[in-house]
Amino acid sequence: MGFPPPIPPSVLALAPLLALVAGALLVLLLEAFLKRKDGELPAFVAVFALLASAFFTVVSWNVGNSGVYLHGRLLVDNLALLVTGVLVLAGIAVILMSLKYAAHQDMNLGQLCGLLLLAVAGAMIMVSSSDGLVVFLGLEVLSVASYAMSGLKRQDRASSEAAAKYFLMGSFAGAFFVFGLALVFGTSGSLDLTAGLSAGASLSAFPAAGAVGLGLILTALFFKIAVAPFHMWAPDVYEGAPTPVTVFLTIVPKAAGLAVLLRVLLPLLSGETAAAAVFTPALSVAAVLTMFAGNLAALRQKSVKRMLAYSSIAHAGYLLVAIVAGDAPSLVFYLLVYLFMNGGAFAVLVAMSGRGFERASLGDFAGLGRRHPGLAASLSIFLLSLAGFPPTAGFLAKFYVFGAAVREGHILLAVAAVLASLIAVAYYLKIIVVMYMQDAEAAAAFDRDDPALFLVIFLGLLGVLQLGLWPGNALSLIRAAFNAF
Amino acid sequence: MIPPAAFLLLSAVLFSLGVLAFFVKKDLLTQFMAVEVMLNASNLAFLAMAKASGQAAGQVIVLFVITVAAAEAVIGLAIIVLIFRQRRTIRTDELKDLRG
After folding, report:
1. Which chain A residue shows the shortest CA-CA distance from B68?
2. CA distance readout (Å), A15 to A19, A125, A367, A370, A421
3. B98 part of a folded domain
């Protein structure tokens, strides 16, 4: 009997979730009963809840708490724990980014933190179950909280338009998931997404209704991840939402959706089954469409925020390549790197905003290299990483994903992915050129006194450079996690 | 005794009608109602499946789906009211501040 006393495995499996939900309730109560409305106390409570959740995740990892709990409703494995880590980091980054931003943009910080905790909890539920109903409930907790979060700038027309569009498309996609689940349940007699599907891995033994149901579920997940041709809502929502919420929307639903996709498709895609013959080409086409749709549309954007929104669609395409290759380690590594570089780039956008205004158009970046060299250099590094230049983590992440695709024999897909990332270089470099080569007509001055935001930018830089130059520790950790998978 | 396949067919028809209405209508509230029709079509499908296979799980799911639909309605109606207050209209073709 050591210290700390051992926690029962099923409690430990639930602990990361319980910490978040308890934190969310506490934050919402504080928000309702606190006298001072502009205080940062709710944010500190929320960060503490996220850290507690991270702590329990690490403990779960260290004691090897993998297994199935609560009568098969809760599945804890290395994939779930790793993705949970990414989700929690994203949550912490979003809260730190919005401390000042919320006050400047007339947003309620307490509501943002409470909703954020619930949304992260929903995403966590999604990744730690293979039961269709539980995945659906997690998806809805995540979605409903996200709709509200994207409309939190209540005076802002763009923000509420984003919320309305996200709500409409999101609930539409949710209905697809339910109907698909009904068909899969009816044909396989089981709610377990993986078991029911692998039983029917040969399509002849798999009734047509079940195949349609699976297609509907995949469609709903594609909506959430913003995969072409179901990405039309994404740029508007990402542009209109408050910038820290955009960071959340471009990372958390994508990570959770991709993890579910991996869980569902891995047994189907491995081997020369009839299902693989149908799904591999379909997924490859979706991946190629997503990469090119995102990158080509990003080329002609005048707003940097919208450009980054399209870039995040393109990155969903690269991540889908990892799914087609069936390579879980490279998927998780890419998600981790994407968290750092995408979060960092948007954090610089947050730093450019001030009381009551946001500067996100390309012209606002003119001359940034001279006036704010640190900010400009950070943004350059994040953009180079997003483009995939060698010393940064973005290069390695792409290298592993495309390498996995080649190894699995998807040569054409890898070639298309490389071509798409070449197109992407053009618009990432455009921002850098504007920052360093153009002079601003009216120098936009903004004072910065936001240590939390700079901590996020610093950690983003650290992650991008550390994972780019010395990825050994993180990589071997992730690889080892999936060797037993 | 009506065969379960008939219920399934009905739910598929209802679901398709919901999808159709979602794309045809240009009004936030009506489109949201179309989504509700789709959710309830799924409920009917679950009940038909539960009856056919004799599994109670199908009936339990319906309760969960109804709860989720209620939660979605709360947030959705709040967003629609917000849109109406700002713009005095809830037509979706008026929602075009965000363009690339």
Report:
1. A140
2. 6, 12, 49, 48, 40
3. no
- Whether the Cβ atoms of residue A175 and residue B42 lie closer than 8 Å to each other: yes
If one counts the domains in chain B, the total is: 1
* CATH classification at residue B35: 1.10.287.3510
Question: How confident is chain B (100 residues) per 10-residue block, as mean pLDDT?
Answer: 86 96 94 96 92 85 95 95 93 81
Q: A364-405 pLDDT, tens per residue?
A: 888 888 888 899 999 999 999 999 998 899 999 999 999 999
CA distances from B74 to A167, B39, B69 (A): 11, 15, 9
Distance CA A216, CA A174 (A): 10
- Establish if B55 touches chain A: CB-CB under 8 angstroms: yes
Query: Is A428 among the domain residues?
Result: yes
> Tell me, what amino acid is at A231?
H
Range of the domain at A429: 271-485
Q: Is residue A45 a part of any domain in this protein? A: no
Q: How far is B60 from chain A (nearest CA, A)?
A: 10
Which residue out of B25, B29, B67, B72 would a mutagenesis test of the A interface target, given it has the greatest number of A Cβ atoms within 10 Å? B72
Look at residue A370 and tell me if it is in a domain: yes
Which residue has better confidence, A24 or A106?
Answer: A24
B80 touches A at CB < 8 Å? yes
A110-123 average pLDDT score: 96
Q: Say yes or no to pLDDT of A237 above 80.
A: yes
Yes or no, beta carbons of A301 and B65 under 8 Å apart: no
Cβ contact A184:A220 at 8 Å: no
Which residues in A lie closer than 8 A to residue B38 (C-beta atoms)? Answer: 172, 175-176, 178-179
pLDDT tens digits, A311-367: 999 999 999 999 999 899 999 999 999 999 999 999 999 998 888 888 888 888 888
Q: Which structural domain range is residue B9 located in? A: 4-90
| CA quadruple A135, A136, A138, A142: dihedral sign | positive
What is the rounded CA–CA span in Å between residue A399 and residue A392? 11
Q: Taking CA A153 as the corner, what is the angle to CA A143 and CA A307, rounded to the nearest 5 degrees?
A: 75
Are the Cβ atoms of A189 and B55 closer than 8 angstroms?
yes
* Chain B residues near residue A171 by CB distance under 8 angstroms: 32, 35, 72, 76
Q: What is the ipTM of this complex?
A: 0.96
What 3-state class would DSSP assign to A303?
strand
pLDDT given at position A201: 46
Q: What's residue A371's pLDDT?
A: 85
Q: A67-69 and A74-76: which strand pairing?
A: antiparallel
